[in-house]
Design goal:
Distance between the termini of chain A: 68 Å
Largest sheet of chain B: 8 strands, antiparallel, barrel
Strand order of the largest sheet of chain B: 1-2-3-4-5-6-7-8
Radius of gyration of chain A: 20 Å
Structural class of chain A: mainly alpha
CATH topology of the largest domain in chain B: Porin
Order of helices and strands of chain A: HHHHH
Distance between the termini of chain B: 54 Å
Strand content of chain B: over 45%
Largest interface: A-B, 43 and 45 residues
Oligomer: heterodimer
Number of helices of chain A: 5
CATH architecture of the largest domain in chain B: Beta Barrel
CATH class of the largest domain in chain B: Mainly Beta
Number of helices of chain B: 2
Shape of chain A: globular
Chain lengths: 189, 216
Amino acid sequence: MTVDPNAPTQDVPAPRPRPARYLVPALVGAAVAVALGAYGQVHDPTGTAFNLAGFSSTGAVKSWLATAALFFAVVQVISALMLYGRLPGPSWAGVLHRWSGRVAFLVAVPVAVHCLYAFGYRTSDTRVMWHSLLGCFFFGAFSAKMLLLRFERLPARLLPLVGGLVFTALTIIWLTSALWFFRTFGVTT
Amino acid sequence: MKRPGPLLTLLVGVLLGLSMLAFNTATGTRSAPSSSAAEPERPPSAEAPAASSPAAPPRAPAPDGAYTGRTDDDSAAVAVTVRDRRAVAYYCDGRARESWLRGEVRDDGGMRLTGKDGAELNGTLRQGRRIRGTVDAGGGHQAFTADRAEKPSGPYRATADVRDTTIDGGWVVLKDGGQVGILTRDGTPGPAPRIDPETGVAAVDGRRITARPVTP
């Protein structure tokens, strides 16, 4: 390939974004997802783990924590729409978006720890398989999104796309676990 | 400028996860003291008798709680949990026939609960103490009586995977401490091991599974 040294150059103040640099978050996210799945597969499931006072079972604790996470995830979508100007929003929509995201993530972590510790990665039926798969995917995609946030210039659609993936994964995770729990054992604490 | 916030978020999440894992590993399978024994039971609708004047008793809502008993022919057990005018029932003969049934409780205490494969339970809750009715499940038609029972009596259920086998267990824990249960392995029903009524733990093929009380 030959390069014409006299070709007109664009006056770009910053270097052109190279798509390759997004590989780092993508690879880290993939590594997180695979590592969680591998731990769930290798670790011998114990069947039981901690419980919280005031709840009848760990399943109930997890279902309510997951429901809280989904609630904050919905806040995430709404506040993101505000940030992108698709919805009228207050000036503190950014703060709302950051903190609702943090809460949703931190609330989901104990649930995932329990799932991986007590149940492991399972594929015995469709519900459990999708839940296992997307549970690992969720934390990988979330890690990738957090790392992407550190880049200065991102393609306009990249963050909404990754955020949408994270939200979709969490929703399906909730449908295949907490909703199933509430339908099987009742809406109980 | 590199924003540190997202990295801190991830870091806190990792630390939280690791500390919970360490806590789990340190405590083994012993669960932290849950309040299952000390949990304050909802007072059995203390205002119901007071509110109902002698002339109009049936307006009071159905008293919440668990009801357990046997069929009249003594071949199967029934457990019903009532909460907020909804009921869930488990019918089980301890060998092959079982059914989970759900439905609403009418103001007069009548209930018609339905389950899979056309299973049906028709019953009436009388004076908040006893449910009398019939169950149609697995081709049979049986009358039953279930008396109000305190914890840990009631219907229990456990689902788990043990060595690539899908386990679905159901139990009626009776007032006298007796248990009637069925454990279905990959769709084949069979007798169930005893569960510890305090913790719900049962041993299946050398593994521990945990049964939970079922509520509507």
